[in-house]
Prior knowledge:
A: mainly alpha, B: mainly alpha
Amino acid sequence: MTSLSSRGRLFVAAATLAAGLLCLAVVMIPVAEVGGLPAAPWFRLALRPACHQISDRCLDLGSGPLAVCARCAGLYAGGFLGLLVTAVGGRRLHPSWKIVALAAAPSIIDFVLGQLGLPSLTNWPRFSLATVPGLLLGFLLGDAISTLTRKATEPSDGSMA
Amino acid sequence: MTNKAPSMMMPALIAGGSLGFVSGIPISNCACCLWAAGAGFLAAFLYSKTCKKVGAGFDAGKGGVLGLLTGAIFGVVGSVINSAFSLITGGLDMEGMREAIDANPMISDPEAAAQAMQIFESVGPLFFLLIFALIWIVSGVLFAALGGLIGGSAFKAEEASNDSGDGWTSSPPSAPPAVDNPPPPPVDPSA
């Protein structure tokens, strides 16, 4: 684990803000639809390429189905948390891809079971399971942003061994 | 010393092509963003293995670029396969389109639904296939770039230095001139 540069931290914070806005949109779209906001269906449609949005598979917090399915919501929430931890902690966290694969395994198994028509999890467990790989991917994304920032700001000296 | 980076085309073709194909099949497209992000991630994995073999470096920056390339291939393959399925199975016929319009939460007004159907009838299903393909490609590129970026971080590979003298062979260096000739005479420190 190495510390983030101030600039790197700034960019990770910006990504965290973007991820937070995405999560907020996912939750607020059904609320806005109930409130009669004309743009709300457009926002839901904008997330359509990212998720199937099947109502039965979306969490319902009281205002109708969220704008993405439970699994996607878990991934987004986990990703947001991962970026937030990186930005607040100021440290680059770099989980091994094997740990990420292990964390994603339950969600993958659940997905495959669902595709095969076998009984699969309900929405809340599906959400909870997806937050774990989401969190780890958030760490990796924070690390990637930090690397990009470092490469973009460091002097381009190709002569060093 | 830098080692020559291998071509990104092969991992992009393998990952983008295979996952694009799978995602294009209507039965499996319920995880659209994950297929695309997964394609970028898989391409990063494949590319990092090649980079390690030749001793070239791989990081998030290259992963992002690789993800963009993979996403473009993913989008093209996925949209072609999906369009083909739609045309074969008649998924974009008038009835199918009417059902899609009825199910669309944006079109709650029956008059607007009728107008949408009129537009559909006048431009034909191929136009909608094209629009759908464009959306597929754009979203594929975005998500695969994200997957490639994350993959670049997960499968980071350090550039191998060629001066260890341990018999490690790699591609010829690109930046400084190759040291094929006898070594230069030692420099006099007092000079």
